[in-house]
Amino acid sequence: MMKRSLHLHVLLRKLQANPVVGLLGPRQVGKTTLAGQVAAARRGPVHRFDLENERDVERLASPLQALEGLKGLVIVDEIQRRQELFPTLRVLADRRPLPARFLVLGSASPELLRQSSESLAGRISYHELPGLSLAEVGRGGWKRLWLRGGFPRSYLAQSEALSRDWRRDLVKTYLERELPGLELRLPAETMRRFWAMLAHSHGQIWNSSEFARSFGVSDKTVRGYLGALSDTFMARLLRPWHENLSKRQVKSPKVYFRDSGLLHLLSGIEDFSQLQTHPRCGASWEGFALEQAIQLTGAWDEECYFWATHQGAELDLLLVRGRRRVGFEFKYSQSPGLTPSMRTALADLRLDHLWVVHPGCERYALARRVEAIPLMDLAKSLSKSLSSPVPPGS
Fold first, then answer.
1. What's the half-sphere exposure (Cβ side, CA atoms, 13 Å) at 168?
2. How many domains does the chain have?
3. In terms of residue numbers, what domain contains 147?
4. How far apart are CA 194 and CA 92, in angstroms?
5. Cα 79 from chain centroid?
6. Chosen domain end from 128, 151, 184
7. Helix (H, G, I), strand (E, B) or coil at 361
């Protein structure tokens, strides 16, 4: 068991300030374990309800009666299975003085948990628990993290074979239990085929028409397939940034697997040597490093974009925070250089800084405001580049 200290401290702080905290993330990422660590760190009684447990579901048949007398911390796991609890939580959150705080755990995004947004607006604070980060596994763990992905049990497995078996079981459970539990009526075999096909489009511009033709369904239907993966933290749709330029710019999103281990499973990649020689190695590195950069910056989804023109200029990741714009290019090369595309992005987007992130060991300047940096060194430099004041007149 790994103690995820950063996330633990965030949750403890949020529980001090909010009557309800939502801990969201993909299935098996460690939400229940982290909730147990939160309970151990707090004083006072703790009450747990698991909505995959029939006995606990029966206990909550009359939710107000079951919950209103409880004090301390109340943990409700798999909240997406009983969204009708949210109006009750609103009533309980409005009591003064507040006898209990609620930590609700879910495997679906706030957009999918629509009732929570409507019923608990102003009363709930969300925290997303992603897979393990480089900051958590340390410098020596980056190859394993990239190959196996960030699900703790996959990363910590005693062998590559056991890690793959665990990921294979996760995919099966996700398709057969998770999606039906969210009332997403999607055939498991169809979703498996869609997910496998998506692996070939990882890091590319989303083309719904191409997928629709392959499956013999409408564009709307395949968008629903992708939406299901996105809403359950399995896929990332990275939005395009549009600048006021004369150049034609790409307006469709890019799609990524959020976990590199699942990408490798569905791509048939079994070990690190296979990964390095695979045709999609560069795309895999891009997605892995992109997710790590987003984690290390603590960026919200609405701060994250990519940029591309029809003339060929592009930027893998653009973080927009206040008036600051920081760009990222992810290159699977020991010594990446400056490209014409980088120069164009730097000028057209008026970037404050451009990081060229690579797996090597050397950090060096490529041009003014452009720096090549090892992925493991990124955390030390990001906070400064995203928080430094914008020079007057810029």
1. 10
2. 2
3. 134-387
4. 42
5. 19
6. 128
7. coil
